[in-house]
Design a protein that fits this description.
Layout: E1 9-14, H1 18-28, E2 34-40, H2 43-53, E3 57-60, H3 69-79, E4 85-90, H4 96-101, E5 106-109, H5 114-133, H6 141-145, E6 152-157, E7 160-165, E8 169-175, E9 178-183, E10 187-190, H7 195-200, E11 207-211, E12 214-217, E13 221-226, E14 232-236, E15 243-245, H8 248-258
Parallel strand pairs: 1-2, 1-3, 3-4, 4-5
Antiparallel strand pairs: 6-7, 6-10, 8-9, 8-12, 9-10, 11-12, 13-14, 14-15
Helix pairs in contact: 2-3
Length: 260
Amino acid sequence: MRDRATATLTTVIVDDEQLASDELAYLLRDFPEVEVVATGRNGLEAVQLIRKAEPDLVFMDVHMPGQDGMSVVRDLRESGMELPHFIFVTAYDQYAVEAFRLEAMDYLLKPVDKARLAETIDRARRSAQEKKALTPESATPLASSSPPHRTKLLIRNANRNFIVDAQDVIYATIDNGMITLVATNVEGHSNYRTIEDLQANLDKDTFWRVHRSYLVNIHKIKEVVPWFKSSYQLRMDDRKHTEIPVSRVQTKRLRELLKL
């Protein structure tokens, strides 16, 4: 992607359904930071447009004539070019796991919900700002090796793989080397092996290591419960209203965070 002085997110839309393409373009008009520079009707056009326009974002259908959306990403990756952020837009949810493996920024279901689209655009904007801030002069070995924040996580439950938004994860806990993720609508095991690894891949301003065995989403804390010896437990906003202990080391941060 080319360096740009403005915060504009140049965007390509690829969908073989003209109505769906027009509808998405219409929704994107309400986001001044997004500039749709080209539209395509199939996978072959997608490859050509992306190589020519070098966009920041690509909204692309999965099922298209000639070449499907997943193949487009694989081909461009093999070419060695710097890839844009891909957002798959489809009526089918069964391709979410494959999209996750291809490190797509997001996976939207048709008809596209405007509020859900706004979350995706905000994520893309923040990613662009972070990339711009990381100039060659300011980059350090530590910074360059830091993984990007994951916006999607995989949860395994009953031999099924569910893809959830990271922001929908309420908390994570580890027991006997197995990490359990509890999200708004599903609970199961994670493919990460340690809490440290999971935390390193998530937004540090959202996910907080309150205890050596627990990582919580601060936006999913329902209640702070006083506990013994001036400590606290966090009652989370899951179905079980799980209570999670706050370690003594983290109690000070809790008081600062919530002005206790």
